Amino acid sequence: YMSHHNLDAITVHQARQPFDVPGLDDFEWAQETDTASFIFSVGAGVRGRDLLVRMLPTTLCVRCHGRILLDGPLGGTIAPEESEWELVDGSLHLTLRKAQQCEWRIPIRQTTATTTPGTAPAATGASAPSRPASSATAPPPQPRRLPALDRSAGGSSVLRDAYRAWDRFDEAGALAAVENEGKSEDSIGVTLRAGGGTAALQCTDYVKDTEEVELDEELGRKRSSLQATLNARLAQAAELKAQGNRLLSDGQPRAALERYLEGEGALCALEHARVLCSAHMVGTTDALLTDLRANAAQAALKLGDWDAAIETATAVLEAVPTHAKALYRRASAHASRDGDGDASRARADLRALLKVQPSNGAASRLLDSLPADSPGGIMV
Fold first, then answer.
1. What gap in Å lies between CA 167 and CA 15, rounded to an integer?
2. Burial class of residue 368 (count of CB atoms within 10 Å of its CB; 0-12, 13-18, 19+)
3. Which residues of 189-213 are buried (b: 16+ CB within 10 A; e: fewer)?
4. What are the distances in angstroms from CA 182 to CA 189, 205, 207, 342?
C-alpha cells in the first residue's frame, strides 16, 4: 500500500523562523512534511472567544475583536477540517494540515493592511532589488513540487527496491520498538489527573504491543480533529453572542434571543467531549455558555416572555448560584408574571442578590415594590 501523497517531498523540515507580515511584528512560522505552523501575538488580555479564525482550503483570516490580524492566500492548499488553532499565553498557534506533502515557499500573502491603533503599518522587511514597473500583477508563488519518480518496471532498480522496502515497512512495529525502548514488563506506573469536574487514571512506562500503538495513533488523529471541531464551535458561539448583543442593542430582542439560543445549542453539543478537554477549554466553554443564557434571559424579558426568562436564568443559576444578573432577571420575570408563588420567589432571588451586592439599588427598589409577606406567610 502506498500513500496518495507526493512521496518525493517526505523530508520537508523547516525550523521556526520569522516572516514579515504587515501589521504583525512577531509573526513566525515553521513547516514539516504535512503541516505548516504559524505563531504570533494577539495580546495578553485576549481570550479564545475574542478570536474568529476562518480556515479555507487556500485562504486564512484571523480577527480579534472584529479587527483583522491576518488575511490572505496561503502558501499552499490545506485541509481545514484537519487544521486547528490554540491560544497560549497571549499568542495564537495555528497548525495547518497540508492537502499535499510539498514544500511551501511562503506561509501567507497578507492582502489586508492591519495596524494597531495609534501605530503605522509594520514594515514589510528588507528592501528588494528594484524591478521595472509593470501594469500586470505578478502571480502568487506556488508551492514547490519536486518531479515524481518513475516507479514503473523501466525505472531504476534501486528506486524500485526502495519503494518495495517502504511498502513492506512495519510502521506500527517500528513505533512500538521506539515506545518500548528502555522499558520492562515490571516498570508499570499509574498517574491520576483530576480537575474541572473530571478525573482520569493513566498507565505509564508499560510495554505496548503493535495493536496498542496503532490505537494510540488513531486516537491522536481523532483528537486533533476533535480539537478543531471544538475550537470551531467555540468561535461560532462567540460570534452568535456578539450578533445577539448587537441585535438587542438595536431593539430587536426576538432576533437576539434566537442568536443566543443558537449559540447555546452549539456549545451544548460539546457536552459529551468535556472529559477530553483541558481545564482551560472547559472553563472557556462554561463562561461563554453562562453569558449566552444570561443574555437570553434579558432578551426574553424584553419580549415579555416570562417563562423563557425564568428558564434561561435558572440554567445560569444552576451552574453559578450567585450570578447577580441571573438572580435579578429571574426575580423580574417572577414579579412580572405575578402568578401563584411568583412574588415569594422574586423576593427570595432579590434577597440572595442583595447578600452578594448589598448596594444594588435596582434590586432594593424591586424588592420594596413587591407585596410583603405577613407572619403567617400570607401576602398583605
1. 29
2. exposed
3. eeeeeeeeeeeeeeeeebebebeeb
4. 14, 9, 9, 69
Beta carbons of 201 and 192 less than 8 angstroms apart: yes
Query: Which grid coordinates are listed for 135?
Result: 501594469
C-alpha cell, 330: 429571574
**Reported pTM:** 0.46
Which among 239, 233, 47 is positioned nearest to 247, based on CA atoms?
239
What is the residue whose three cell numbers read 518500548?
A: 180
Convert the pLDDT of each residue in 9-58 to its tens digit: 346 788 999 999 988 889 999 999 889 999 999 988 898 888 999 999 99
Distance CA 343, CA 373 (A): 9
Q: Is the dihedral of CA 340, 343, 347, 350 positive or negative?
A: positive
Residue 346's contacts (CB-CB under 8 Å, 6 or more residues apart) are 330, 331, 332, 334, 335, 366, 370
Total Cβ atoms within 10 A of residue 65: 12
One-letter identity of residue 277: C
